[in-house]
Amino acid sequence: MSLILLKNLLWSRRPVTSSRRTDTTSSRSVLPPISNVTIPPLPFENKPEESWVSTSTIDLEAQTPSDGNSSTSTDPPKGKSRGPSPCSSKITAFIRRKCIAVKNFRPTARMISDAIIGLSDGMTVPFALTAGLSSFGDTRIVQLGGIAEVVAGMISMGVGGALGAKAESDGYKAKVAETVKLVVDSSAEAIALVHDVLRPFGIDLPQRDTIANNLIQSSDRMVDFLLRFHYQEKQPDPSRPMACGLTIGIGYALGGIIPLVPYFCVQRNEVLLALYISIGIMAVTLFLFGFVKTVLLAEADRDRSTWKAFLGGMEMLAIGGGSAAVAVGIVHGINMSMTD
């Protein structure tokens, strides 16, 4: 009986196992093979390698969060320096042009003449004034009077120089208008002036007629010829009035400060000591100024002799010292008469 039960039990378990295996096998057989499965293409598979690499790089850079230390998208790539801004380039170019202009600057003869006029007047007039005011025995009076004279003289000399240069420019404009009127209204007289200019050079009459006829065909050329060779007029620089006024005024101020310096370096009652120091300083300064002026204004090498420069220095010293002595004598005499 027990054997029968055991047989039935074993027999009943075997089908169950086989059915389970069959189900598993059937479930596996339903799935299609891997070779028959179609996988959709990735986005970058249909594009060339450079395009999807560069696109991914751009996307990664755009999606990278920026912080205080990271550079923005406008920063130049690594290894490349940012170029200068337009404003800094203009400033650099302007400074370079000014430096080149200063390096190539050469003072003209007119500029040297204006500086000499300002320095000579500035060293003689304030020196004579301070020497005369020293007879009052108070450095405060000399200081105030000297400063007032230097400021007033600087303004008056500068304005006078500017007005003189402006008058020169106005005279040139008037001469141009007169020459234009002569060429337009009286061509025969203009031709006669051309003959007068060319005759001293030994030019024959036919050649002079040819030159005059060629010039008269253009009124501009005729006017320019007459201005340059007959009237000997040269067009002045438009900035001449301003440059002349500044040069003379600054020269006068620089020359006038020199005799005033000793009066600011002593006690109030030591006016005679300041006067003696001022006389010594101005004697050396006037002599050197006259010496250098003679050398600068020499037009030929034969004129640039030491003896001629020495005479120029002594001449300047005599003018400045004489004017100072006269001023001291006059002020001292007036002071004595008022005291009595």
Beta-strand proportion: under 5%
Low-confidence regions: 14-32, 42-73
Give the rounded overall mean pLDDT: 75
SSE order, one letter for each helix or strand: HHHHHHHHHHH
- Tell me, briefly, the overall form: elongated
Measured distance between first and last alpha carbons: 178 Å
Strand segment count: 0
Rg calc: 50 Å
| Helix content estimate | over 70%
User: Please, how many helices?
Assistant: 11
Structural summary, described in words:
- It is a single chain.
- Helix content is 73%, strand content 0%.
- The chain is an all-alpha fold.
- Helix 4 (109-133) packs antiparallel against helix 5 (139-185), helix 4 runs antiparallel to helix 10 (271-297) and helix 5 (139-185) packs across helix 6 (187-198).
In short:
This protein is mainly α.
Please outline the helices and strands.
Elements lengths: L1 H29 L18 H15 L22 H18 L5 H25 L5 H47 L1 H12 L6 H12 L2 H12 L9 H18 L13 H27 L8 H34 L1
Features:
single chain; 340 residues; mainly alpha; 11 helices; 73% helix
